[in-house]
């Protein structure tokens, strides 16, 4: 009896700690304090200039290697967002804006407007259009966002981006 209780407990624990399968996305919603709300799909992403990124090691919060992404090709997030029209009287207030990127499982990461459009970080935040020879329309974790310059790359690694909310600090 004790054997079965231990086995049952182990199965329940493994089930609780197993990563749940994330639902891939084919587009994401743009909303918030912008005038041109809408949907960004594969075609919109693929219309941007692409870059060969090579290999990226994903490190967790402790700096431990969790996985490696290879044969990456991506487009800059800032290129996808460059045509946004912000609800602001002028460019001075752009420093008050930030972007919340949300995955289909509700995982969230944040970037400021200045990070994306006014610092070197903006040149390292990509939507992945190809991974390990698999294109975005067939990638299991599409739409995938990575930041190649983060020290702990797994922290802002977002699988299945489903929405980006533009907000303004008040």
Describe this structure in words.
The protein is built from four helices and ten strands. The termini are far apart. The protein has a five-stranded mixed beta sheet. It has 170 residues and is α+β, with helices and mostly antiparallel strands. 18% of the residues lie in helices and 38% in strands. 25% of the residues are buried.
Task: Give a quick precis of the structure.
18% of the residues lie in helices and 38% in strands. It has helices at residues 2-17, 42-46, 77-81, 113-117, and strands spanning 27-32, 38-41, 50-59, 65-76, 97-103, 108-112, 125-131, 134-135, 144-147, 161-168. It has four helices and ten strands, in the order αββαββαββαββββ.
Q: Helices, strands, pairings?
A:
Elements: H1 2-17, E1 27-32, E2 38-41, H2 42-46, E3 50-59, E4 65-76, H3 77-81, E5 97-103, E6 108-112, H4 113-117, E7 125-131, E8 134-135, E9 144-147, E10 161-168
Parallel strand pairs: 1-10
Antiparallel strand pairs: 1-2, 3-4, 4-7, 5-6, 5-10, 7-8, 7-9
Mind summarizing the main beta sheet? 5 strands, mixed
- SSE order, one letter for each helix or strand: HEEHEEHEEHEEEE
Instruction: Classify the secondary structure makeup into a structural class.
Output: alpha+beta
Shape descriptor reads globular
Number of helices: 4
What proportion of the residues is helical, as a percent range?
10-25%
Our estimate of the beta-strand percent is 35-45%
């Amino acid at each position: 009896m004790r054997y079965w209780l231990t086995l049952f407990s182990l199965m329940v624990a493994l089930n609780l700690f197993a990563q749940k399968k994330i639902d891939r996305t084919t587009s994401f919603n743009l909303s918030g304090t912008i005038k041109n709300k809408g949907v960004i799909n594969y075609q919109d992403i693929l219309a941007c200039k692409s870059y060969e990124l090579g290999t990226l090691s994903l490190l967790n919060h402790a700096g431990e290697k969790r996985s490696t992404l290879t044969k990456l090709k991506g487009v800059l997030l800032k290129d996808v967002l460059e045509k946004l029209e912000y609800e602001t009287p002028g460019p001075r207030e752009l420093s008050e804006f930030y972007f919340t990127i949300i995955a289909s499982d509700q995982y969230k990461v944040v970037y400021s407007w200045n990070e994306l459009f006014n610092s070197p970080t903006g040149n390292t935040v990509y939507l992945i259009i190809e991974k390990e020879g698999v294109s975005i329309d067939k990638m299991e974790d599409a739409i995938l966002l990575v930041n190649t310059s983060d020290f702990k790359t797994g922290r802002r690694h977002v699988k299945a981006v489903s929405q980006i909310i533009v907000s303004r600090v008040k």
